[in-house]
Records
---
Amino acid sequence: MFSVSGVYSSKVLKFFIIAVATGLLSGCTTTPEPSSQSVNKQKPASVTDVVLDGYYEPLPSSGKKGYFVEQLAPEIYFFSTGVYNNLFVVTQEGVVITDPIKGKGKLLKQAIREVTTQPVRFMIYSHSHIDHIGDAHLFAGEGVQIIAQVETGKALRKYKDRNRPVPHINFGTNYTLSIGGITIELIYPGEGHGKGNSIIYIPSRKVLMYVDMATPKSVPFKNFAYTIDIASHVRGIEKTLKLDFDVYVAGHLHRTGKREEMKEVLAYHYASKKASIEAIKKVSFLDVRVRTKTKDVENLFGTYLDAVAEECYRILKPEWKHRLMGFEAFARGHCDVWISYHRTHKAP
Ligand SMILES: [Zn+2]
């Protein structure tokens, strides 16, 4: 029973590569999935492209099926469509799924049927965002209990979206689900990527899932995936790294991440904060005012903030462009978030 406790001649190729890399990094956007066909047609990047774009991992073909399934440990399976991912747990007492990705629910059902005939008994939402749980309605039927953090439940009751049924079980800080000899710990480490975003942790297998927080080998998505409280976002990753795990599922990418890769993304958070402080100290408002011809004070201020963000980006570039995907697209935005944080929350 269950217990509840190249220089390619045109610019088009460069744009395409950037677009694919951006898709890999998407943090709660409705980035279209590349079809397996388009992936197969993707040309390998030349050395020059790598120099322009920085580090990136080509998206492998997911074949005709349109998804990958990989067994991570006994009972634990990783599901990925290439851009989005989740995990599911198969036991003799039923299946526990997480995050039924919008538009990919049928593929998830197919993936589960590849490995078991057991019914789905529990569905865990990592958070309320529609891109990650928009196909929940395909699983919400008889006998399927939905579990989510209380803030996720609140948000879903407000949205009244029939595609995202509200949870049956709403937990606060911690929740333990035991089924078929497997214990799944749900942990709410605080706001981070929006209220309710929780860690789904399987201690016995040293596997966890924490969505939209630290995509392996990637900088965070635009403006830290639209997070409101950047300090709590950082704390969320720090708290996660206190757990004993080897492998994690980030919600995005064609593969899982290693513990060291989460540490690397956290190091980028620290580095972007530090660079923003250096840039604030280095760029002079008076210099920008002298340089800028505008009489519009808002325009002047915007020009100054852009100059600080640009300096911050310049400081980060030598170390991080070749290490993490998305640097060219998002680093200035991360600098912007930190600059705002220092202006409004905590002076450097
Ligand atoms: Zn999200």
---
Amino acid sequence: MGEVLLSIRNLKIYYYTLSGIVRAVDGVDLDVYSGEWITIVGESGSGKSTLAMSVLGLILPPGRVVEGSILFDGVDIAKAGIEELRRIRGRRIGVIFQDPGAYLDPLRTVGSQIAEAVIEHRLASSWDEAWVKAEEALELVGVPASRARSYPHQLSGGQKQRVAIAAAIALEPELLVADEPTTALDVIVQAKIMELLEDLRRKKGLTILMVTHDIALASEVSDRVAVMYAGRIVEVGGSRRIVESPSHPYTRMLVESVPDVWVKKPVRSIPGDPPDLRRPPRGCRFHPRCPLALEECRSKQPPRVPMPGGGWAECFLAGMEYGG
Ligand SMILES: Nc1ncnc2c1ncn2[C@@H]1O[C@H](COP(=O)(O)OP(=O)(O)O)[C@@H](O)[C@H]1O
Ligand code: SF4
Ligand SMILES: [Mg+2]
């Protein structure tokens, strides 16, 4: 693995709502290594987007970072000022979202939107130079340069997502945060976008931090997977280890909930619902749904147990052989 590019420590992000304090991220530690593709996986509402947005310094009220740090090249993004963030966000840390339509201006050509960002971040000194960079970025993501003169509505969903990736890549970021980038697309387009990201990672030495609810997709495309449950990362490890020998009962249940096209096997859904993050369960947050819960799981925070080959799992039973 490369050097640590991003280091998150004891991060807590709460939303202060009228109906209570939502503990969306509650004690997350995570290192992202230069050049790797790491994916955060978890059910809807587990805090994945909140965590991803915090890396961009984009936690808006009623949300607030209440504790912890997000170190990127010596800068703590959790405490950085507007000027400091401006130099990092977009420029050194790029982002793509599930719905590219939401941040492409419908009234302007995609080329001019990319070129404008290039100028804004002083990566070109003239509009012509910026326009050439925009066309190059589009070509790099497999969109013909002639499409620079198209408006967003003239593009398909897959093409729009490619344009969004081009817009991010044109600023030559070191880290790309991708929050459910293909959830709105069909599986064929999804596979092509994943291939494109992998290609960019190799060509540009990009580091990728992706977020998805799909553990099959995560393990297929990434080097490492971090499993998030109720505001905490409960297991981290190499993708292969995570799917072949998951250690945390929740990871195991996520893996078992994936239908297998080739082998007929019973698909088990995870019983129960994710907890209300205004009142997360005491002890291990997974205990109300865990088939293996022990008495101590109800009151004590489980330890973080290192796994052979790297990574860890946060469970009293981690590292022990158990049936289930
Ligand atoms: N702006 C907000 N105001 C209040 N609560 C929020 C806000 N954004 C997210 N939440 C809550 O924070 C929790 C985590 O949400 P989110 O980070 O979007 O999870 P995920 O991306 O895993 O679905 C959820 O309980 C969600 O309802
Ligand atoms: S700590 Fe206990 S409740 Fe939590 S996942 Fe492990 S066995 Fe289940
Ligand atoms: Mg989300």
